Amino acid sequence: MNNIPLVIASSNEGKIKEFQKLLQDFPFNLKTQPLGLEIDETGKTFRENARIKAITVSKEIGDLSLADDSGLCVESLGGAPGVYSSRYANSDKERIEKLLAELQPFTNRKAKFECALCVASGENVLIEVTGFCEGLITFSPKGKNGFGYDPVFEVSGFGETFAQMNYKKKKQIGHRGNAFKLLKPELKKLLTSLAD
Ligand code: ITT
To answer: What does CATH list as the number for 4-195?
Structure first.
């Protein structure tokens, strides 16, 4: 019975598709955030921005919301693009080109993805978790799957970019999947408390 409304507080198609798969066994009636809703991501951390998005959308719609703030932190660039990952350039293609150009002088290609998830009900933060995934930035894009920086992020120990993996594998080892592993038991507790 899919009867509990949950708004996915995101306008990023790639994330929304991943959440639809991650949440498929939960009894949620998944909704998307209103088109054109502008949210100022003024936080300095992924966690702060996830909170801002979850609270803003939940207050706007009146249902529970789940927000994701995520991004790529590159060691040689002092952690950039970090919380500015989506604002780094105007399209996935341009973001990747800019990243490869900025990293060109460096031999250290270490990077990590971070994903902060927040579930809110109005002003109230109900759940917060963070997941990570470590890897290296490749010298050119590889693979066609996924979204964002997936074609240039090679996962440590796997020798493949996220874009070369099928989604099942990205879910098992990726930052969003790792965050979701922490979110899952908390969501189950929340559902139990809502049913009481
Ligand atoms: P919402 O705020 O509406 O959710 P957004 O794309 O602006 O959408 P963020 O502010 O969290 O989301 O920015 C995250 C950016 O980091 C995203 O646009 C991608 O460029 C990148 N990113 C996050 N997760 C990723 C993943 O799994 N694979 C590739 N790139 C990812």
So the answer is: 3.90.950.10
pLDDT in tens, the chain (196 residues): 568 999 999 999 999 999 999 999 999 999 999 899 999 999 999 999 999 999 999 999 999 999 999 999 999 999 999 999 999 999 999 999 999 999 999 999 999 999 999 999 999 999 999 999 999 999 999 999 999 999 999 999 999 999 999 999 999 999 999 999 999 999 999 999 988 7
Cα 33 to ligand 1 centroid, rounded to whole Å: 16
Of 8, 11, 12, 57, the residue with max ligand 1 atoms within 8 A of its CB, to mutate for a pocket test, comes to: 12
Alpha-carbon distances of 123 from 55, 57, 97, 144, rounded to whole Å: 6, 10, 39, 39
Torsion angle in degrees (nearest 10) through CA of 193, 28, 62, 16: 130
Judge if the beta carbon of residue 65 lies within 6 A of ligand 1: no
Q: Which residues are catalytic?
A: 69
Is there an atom of ligand 1 within 6 Å of 180 CB?
no
What separation, in Å, do the N-terminal and C-terminal C-alpha atoms of the chain show?
16
